[in-house]
Amino acid sequence: MIAFVRGTVAGVTLSSAVVEVGGVGLEVMCTPGTLATLRTGHEATLPTSMVVREDSLTLFGFLDDDEKQCFELLQTASGVGPKLAQAMLAVLAPDDLRVAVTHEDVKTLTQVPGIGQKGAQRIILELRDRLGAPVGATSATRTGVPSSAAPWRDQVHQGLVGLGWSAKEAERAVDEVAPQAGDAPDVGSLLRAALLALRKA
User: Fold this and answer.
1) How far apart are the C-alpha atoms of 177 and 37, rounded to whole Å?
2) Is residue 169 predicted with pLDDT exceeding 80?
3) Which parts of this chain are annotated as the region Domain III (predicted)?
4) Full domain range(s) for residue 48
5) 44, 87, 103, 162: which is deepest, by most CB within 10 A?
6) Are both 49 and 17 inside the same structural domain?
């Protein structure tokens, strides 16, 4: 298994990054928050988790080992595959996820596209004794800060579309959370705010 990749970022797409390792370009699937920390031409180190299927090998990349561990634990719950696990981490930081599960906060979990009330209850039941206590990495302390306003808008918009919302819905949500961006926008927090706005609409 590939535990991490380190190399030059050769490119960033809507949902993945290509990291050059020893002359080979590895495509790594990432959340918008993780992608926002990567810059083409710069070196990056990403903890990774490989998902093996009969017809594919997919490499998922993360901000840190804690996020990677949560990704792998989430998949042990019934009905949670790698795409849904990644969607959960796009919406909730690892500690936000732990708090939601510990406090049986169904409402917070159902903010994730693809998770209904029954699914949230099942995740709580199966994972509340496995995710552990919060370790301090809540959304308020996580960073994914682009260098200017335009990149965060693109990242949040692309993240919403990747999670199943229409381009028009995504654009409306981005406009709604724009006042929260400030001078140093945090893509992860803005994405979560946009998803909350869409849920309320």
Assistant:
1) 20
2) yes
3) 148-201
4) 4-61
5) 87
6) yes
